Amino acid sequence: LASGVPNINAVNSILVGGPCANAAAAEVMGSPSDCTAGFEPGVGKLQMWDVGTDNVAMLVAGYEKADTVNAVNKAKEGGFSTAIGTKKVYPVSTA
To answer: What are the strands, taking DSSP E only, across the chain?
Structure first.
């Protein structure tokens, strides 16, 4: 859990859930005033962040729970670039 990591920037991490649901994600994203900014309904997001001190964070999130689950499933499939700044979005399947 994010609460168990005293300094999220001091470790490599996979952050599940956006800044509305995950305090560590909010910190890595610069504590946005609107925690839904950059997210849209029906879309999951994978994004790589440089958190300093030679560490990275992978954000796996979505606007709603189903969108985050979709992003998690895409992350599990692999094939995603882990280069800093890489961002990939995935529409939620309606099938």
So the answer is: 13-16, 43-52, 55-62, 87-91
How far is 95 from 92, CA to CA, in rounded Å? 9
Give the pairing of strands 87-91 and 55-62: unpaired
Is residue 94 very low, low, confident or very high in pLDDT (cuts 50, 70, 90)?
low
Of 56, 6, 4, nearest to 28 by C-alpha is 56
Instruction: Name the 3-class secondary structure at 58.
Output: strand
pLDDT(49) > 50: yes
The structure tokens listed for 88 are 């990939």
